[in-house]
Amino acid sequence: MDKPQKLHNYLIPLVVYILLVSLIFLMIHTISWSLAATVSAFLMLSVSFVLKTDMKDLGWDPRGALTGIAVTIVILLIYTAVLAGYGLYAGKSLTFNKLSYSFVLIQLLLVALPEEIFFRGYLQQKLGNTLKGIITVSLLFALAHFVTLCLGGGHGLSVCSQAVLTFFPSLVMGYLYMSTGTLWASIIFHFLANIVHISAGLS
C-alpha cells in the first residue's frame, strides 16, 4: 500500500472520531444528559455499521467470550484487592453499592456495547489491530472521555482524573479484541469493569 493511500485510510477514521466526539460534546451542552447518552450510543453504532461493512467480529464466539470473562475476573479481583488493601491502610472498609437493574442495563446497552463497537470494532480495525493500534485507540478513548466527561460534563477533578485513567482499561479491551478476534471479549470486560468500578467504594 502506498503512503498517500495509507494516510487516507487513517484520516477518515480520525475525522469521524473528531466529528463524533465534537457532536457528543455539543449535545451535552444542549440537551439532557440521558438523551445525549442515548443519541451518542445510537451514533456510535450507526457510524460503525455504516462505515465498516464487515461486522463478523460481533458474531458470538464462546471461546472469545470465556477469555473475556476469565481476564475480567482476574483483573477485577486484583482491582478490588488493591482497593480493599488501601482501605485497610486508610482505616476504611470496602463496600459495594447496590445498582438498579435499569442502570446496569444502561451500562451494557448505552455504554459498553456502543463504545466497544466504535472504538475497537471500527477505530482499532481501521487504525490497525496491532499493539500500535491498541495504544493509539486507547489514547483516543481516554481523550474522548476527558472531553465529554470533564470538559463537557463540568465534573470535578476526581472525574477528570478517572477519565484520563480510562487509557489503561482500554489497553486491556484492545488486547482482548486483538487476541480473540471477537468484540464480545472486550464488551464483557468493559461492562463488568464499569459495574465494579461504579459500585465499589470505601467507607
Rounded to the nearest angstrom, the distance between the terminal CA atoms is: 56 Å
The gross shape turns out to be: globular
Q: Biggest sheet: strands, sense, closure? A: 2 strands, antiparallel
Q: What is the count of helical runs?
A: 8
Q: How does the helix and strand content classify structurally?
A: mainly alpha
Q: Note the beta-strand portion.
A: under 5%
- Alpha carbon gyration radius: 17 Å
Count of β-strands? 2
- Overall domain count: 1
The order of strands across the largest sheet is 1-2
> What's the average pLDDT?
92
Summarize this entry quickly.
Helix content is 81%, strand content 3%. It is mainly alpha-helical.
Describe the secondary-structure layout.
Elements: H1 3-30, H2 33-51, H3 62-90, E1 94-96, H4 101-127, H5 131-151, H6 157-165, H7 167-180, H8 183-199, E2 200-202
Antiparallel strand pairs: 1-2
Keywords:
203 residues, mainly alpha, 2 strands, 81% helix, 3% strand, globular
What does this protein structure show overall?
- The chain is an all-alpha fold.
- It has one domain (3-202).
- Helices cover 81% and strands 3% of the residues.
- It is built from eight helices and two strands, in the order αααβαααααβ.
- The protein has a two-stranded antiparallel sheet.
- The chain is globular.
- The N and C termini lie far apart (56 Å).
